[in-house]
C-alpha cells in the first residue's frame, strides 16, 4: 500500500472555480495519472483502491471529480463575486 501515498492526494486537489480551466485541469490530472501508472506500476490492490475511490467520488457528484463537471452541482457563491477575481 506504499504506492497509495502518491495516488490519494490526487483526489484532494480542488477543481478550479473558473469553468474555462476545467478542461486544462482534467487533461493535466489525466496525464499525471497515466504517466504515474506507466512509470511506477503500482500494485493491483493500490490501483483498484484508487479506481474505486475515484469512481465513488465521480459517481456521487460531490464536485471534486476532475474527469467531468456534474450538471447538478453548483459553483460556490464566491465564484460569482467579481471582487475576488485575480486573487
From TrEMBL:
Keyword Cytoplasm part of the UniProt annotation: no
Protein name per UniProt: BLCAP protein
Entry superkingdom: Eukaryota
Native source species: Jacana jacana (Wattled jacana)
Localisation: Membrane
Keywords: Membrane, Transmembrane, Transmembrane helix
Keyword Zinc set for record: no
GO cellular component, one term: membrane
Lineage: Eukaryota, Metazoa, Chordata, Craniata, Vertebrata
Amino acid at each position: 500500500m506504499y504506492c497509495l501515498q502518491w495516488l490519494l492526494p490526487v483526489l484532494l486537489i480542488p477543481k478550479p472555480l473558473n469553468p474555462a480551466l476545467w478542461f486544462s485541469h482534467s487533461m493535466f490530472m489525466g496525464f499525471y495519472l497515466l504517466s504515474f501508472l506507466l512509470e511506477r506500476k503500482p500494485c493491483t490492490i493500490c490501483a483498484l483502491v484508487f479506481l474505486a475511490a475515484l469512481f465513488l467520488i465521480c459517481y456521487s457528484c460531490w464536485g471534486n471529480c476532475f474527469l467531468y463537471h456534474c450538471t447538478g452541482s453548483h459553483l460556490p457563491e464566491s465564484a460569482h463575486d467579481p471582487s475576488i477575481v485575480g486573487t
